[in-house]
Structure formats: structure tokens, C-alpha cells
Amino acid sequence: MSGPIRSTREGSLEAPTRHALGWEDPAFYDEAPLIEELERVYDLCHGCRRCVSLCDAFPTLFDLIDESETFEVDGVDKKDYWKVVDECYLCDLCYQTKCPYIPPHEWNIDFPHLMLRAKAIQFKKGERKLSHKLISNTKITGTLGSIPVVSQAINAANSSPTLRKVLEGTLGIHRDAHLPEYHTDTIRRRNKSRAPADIEAREAGPTRGKVALFATCYCNVIAPDIGDDLIKVFEHNDIPVRLTEKEECCGMPKLEQGDLQTVDKYKRKNVPELVRLIDEGWDIVAAIPSCVLMFKQELPLMYPDDADLQKIKQHIFDPFEYLMHREKAGLLQKTFKNSIGKVAWHVPCHQRVQNIGPKTKDVLSLVPDADIQVVERCSGHDGTYGVRKESYAKSQKIARPVVNRVKKMEADYLVSDCPMAATQIADGLELKNGETNPISLLRKAYGI
Question: Which residues of 18-42 are buried (b: 16+ CB within 10 A; e: fewer)?
């Protein structure tokens, strides 16, 4: 008898943990040990296969194994290991909802962060596509998209079949992918001289009753109405709201490309401003789940000894998480003027993995006669994965079961806390009503 004896224990009674990323260690970028770890983890995933229904990384892996001569990982060409990496968009669901071998299990599998390490090595070697780097650069696209003449040109190009073919050939953006409309009337321009409402802040649970809105690239230039709706809803609930004075991208689009140096650059600009606001008594709220997750999980795991990040982690909230703390303290306004009927609520992956529970459903369910139907399945969009030429079809395939489920619900509204997921699903539906963001729907219910 030879070779190591594997444990057969699945899961554990211990609370799950997550190791720091260790990205600043030069050994993190050594390719040889990475390949060994990929082989180890791929072999364990092959013996389990519970995650086959998630992203296309797992079907890709299992097809490579099943089509090999040995029907095992040792029959897969190591050059093909990268095909699995290319299909992971760091939704984190395998770690949070499926894998029975996460730490403290002795097999110590963290599939998303292993994929992130592989992407970081690719990026450092210059092997990530230029088109991926460009379309993940929200700073450039957001800045250009907010310039009036440029914004009009971009929006016109996005709706032109001829120019979309050009975009497909140059930037690798699929000609049929839904691209957002850019707005020159950004949330920051709308609120440039706005002061927070003169309301006394009242604590509720861990919240202190006044909020600084981290507008995010998306809500600033692409969906400023969501930011407006959040401000209206919060101030209706006697929560003063201001915007951060300055901010950069949260870094999630660059994290997904393995561009950890740019993530670090954004972090260094964002953290001092957020800490200053927290020290002045403000909590932080962002309307995009990925941005909240970045500060709650990914950045603290990149910098486990950074006290400022730990402070932000304790004081940044999902909007509906914040509102539910108000409800538990008896402070939430529940005088609603409009019914919202049956609502199909899609739970974004990056909200699910925050482990806060279905707070959006809990708040919307307070509206009289509301019927909130939950859809817990990935939309397959991810931000860039859903628009890139090489992954667009797979993204649509991942979204199809979600679209079909919502169709069967015959809901009055479809909403998702992730605007990109909402768009992805809505494109396959004949919607009865226009609101697809739950904070906008809550504002409608309040009649404000």
C-alpha cells in the first residue's frame, strides 16, 4: 500500500474560516507550486462534483477529465488548467454554499482564491487580454461616460449594429451584449451642493443612524437614479445621507482580472476618506453588492493586519441590511402608499456571500400584500463576463434557468440588488413594470 490516505470527512462542526490571500509574498506568484495546487484541488473537485451547477469553471474541468485518456486529472494537459481559470468570475458561491472541504477542513480548499492567484500570475506575466484590462477599467469608462459629448457618442455607438461589430473586433465586446447607457447628470453632479438632511441621528443595533454613500462607479455614471432613490428612502426613514467627498472604484473589476496592484492603488485612495467619515460618526453604505463585499471581505483578506480596513469592515453595510437594523429597533417607517404585488427578487451572488441573510426580502415583505418570491441562482453576468465575446454565450446559458424561473412566477416586478444581474434577467423577459432595483421599488411603495 502506498501513497497518502485521504480523509473521507466532509465538512466539519467548526465554523468556516478563510485564510489571508498572501498576495504580497513573492512566492504567491511562483507558477510551479500554483500548478501543483491546481492539480491537487482539481483532483478533489473531480471526486466531489457538487459545484457543477454553478459557473462554467466546473463543467470545463469535468469535461477535460472525462475526455482524457485516464478519466482522471493526471490525464489532463496542464496547459488546459488555465481553461478552468478563465471561466471563474469569483462569484464565491462554491466556497460559501457548496464546498464541504473549506478551511478548517484538512483539504483546505478555497477555489475562488486559488483562481484569483492564477489570474494574478497571468496578469503579472502579461497574459491577460488587453481588452479585458480596458473594459474592467471603470475609472476610464466612467470618466469618459460622464463627459456630455463623449457620453452621447458612446451611447450612440452602443446602439449602432455597425459600430457594435467594430467593438467586437477591437475590445472583444459581443455585438449582442446589453451595454449600459452613460449619464452626464451623474449622482455627484446632482448632489454637488447638497447638504445632509437636518435630522437627528439615532442608533440602531451596530448602526449609528447617519450614512455616507459610497456612490460607486456604476451608480455615479450609469445608474444615478438608484443613488437618488437610496437617498430618498433613507431620509424618509430619518437617516441623514451625504456622499463621500472623493472615491475611486472599489477594485472588484480589477480583482477579477488578477490586477492586484491596481486594487492596491484604489484601496490607498479610498481607505483614508472612508475612515475619516467613520471617525466623524458616519456609517458607509453602497448600493452595489460587489462594492460592499470588496470592503467586507476581499480587501480585509488582502490586508489582514490593516486596522483601518477592519474598521471599514465593521461600518459598511448593504442598504437593506441597514434598514433591517432600523426595523428591529422600531425605527423603520412602515406607512406605505402603494402596493408592489408579487415581486421576483433575484439574490446577487456577491450579496449572498456576505452572510447577512435575505434582508431585501425582509424589508420588502413589510409592504402590505407584498409577495416576495426568491430566486437564488447566479445570473451569469459578473460585469465583464456577460459582455465579452468569448463568454457571452455561456453567460446567457447560465442566465437561462433564472429567466425561466422568473417567467413561471408571473411576477409584477423583477428586482435584483445588482443592476447588471437585473438587466441580464430582464432582457429575457417581457416586464410588466420598469423598476428592477429593490431600493427603487421601496421608494415607489413609500410613494415618495
Answer: beebebeeeebeeeeebbeebeebb
